[in-house]
Fold this sequence. Notes:
Blueprint: E1 7-12, H1 13-19, E2 23-31, E3 36-43, E4 46-53, E5 57-61
Antiparallel strand pairs: 1-2, 1-5, 2-3, 3-4
Amino acid sequence: MIESDAAIRIYSETLATLLGAKVANGKLVRVSKDGYYEVRLATQGGNYTTLLPIATTVIMAAKPEAEVETIEVER
Length: 75
């Protein structure tokens, strides 16, 4: 699960249209019930609060999660 204020990679058609880049780095601020991600977008030497529609945006944790040892279940 991606927690608030976590570093993320953002993939968005909106970013491609506005900035000419489909991928950006940022931090997740919150997920709105109104259907958007509020993120702090790191671009052009600064951080910008941005609202991106959930329907056309993918967020991914910037760092991989630690692997958890699997437990075999006897059936």
